[in-house]
Amino acid sequence: MKFLVVLLLSLCVAAVLGVLLYPVLMSTGRAVPPWVGQANSLAFNLGLAIKKYADDHGGRPPSALDELYPAYTSDVRATKSEALLAGQRVVIKYHRPKALGNPKDLVLEIRPAHRTNLIGYSRPVRLWGDLHRPRTM
Question: Which of 13, 25, 81, 125 is within CB 3.0–4.6 Å of 39 for a Cys-Cys bond?
């Protein structure tokens, strides 16, 4: 009788843990939140604006992103250090390179302002010095 009670309690605990952990284990690394797509688009558009600015200024990139608005981009988020993308507050950080073209120079990084769930998708979207497509690292 005691064995059956222990077995039944063990099965109940396993079932509850399974129900709680299943969504976390199944979504880790698979689902990409909507803000990432918007961050990629924003990084790409800011990369184009940085390139246009550099072309007009003898290859010198802007010292801050707000120099891009409104002449090189109509996106007012270029003037902000934070933005709201698909309901997720993100931090936009610009790292001014000496010159454009080096794929090892980090130029732009967009990351969540803080983790919002248990697994937390906190990998930033980064744009490197070659200004090719943004990458999630």
Answer: 125
**Is the N-terminal amide bond of 112 cis, ω within 30° of 0?**
no
Single pTM value for the model: 0.72
Strands of 106-112's sheet in order across: 82-85, 88-94, 106-112, 125-128, 135-136
How many alpha carbons fall within 13 Å on the CB side of residue 40? 12
Domain assignments of the chain as residue spans, ordered by start: 34-136
Q: Which tens digit of pLDDT belongs to each residue from 45-54?
A: 999 999 999 9
- Of residues 54, 38, 40, 65, the one with CA closest to residue 133: 40
Name the least confident of 57-71, 80-94, 114-128: 114-128
Q: Which helix (H) or strand (E) holds 125?
A: strand 125-128
The residues that bridge with 126 in the sheet, in sequence order, are: 109, 135
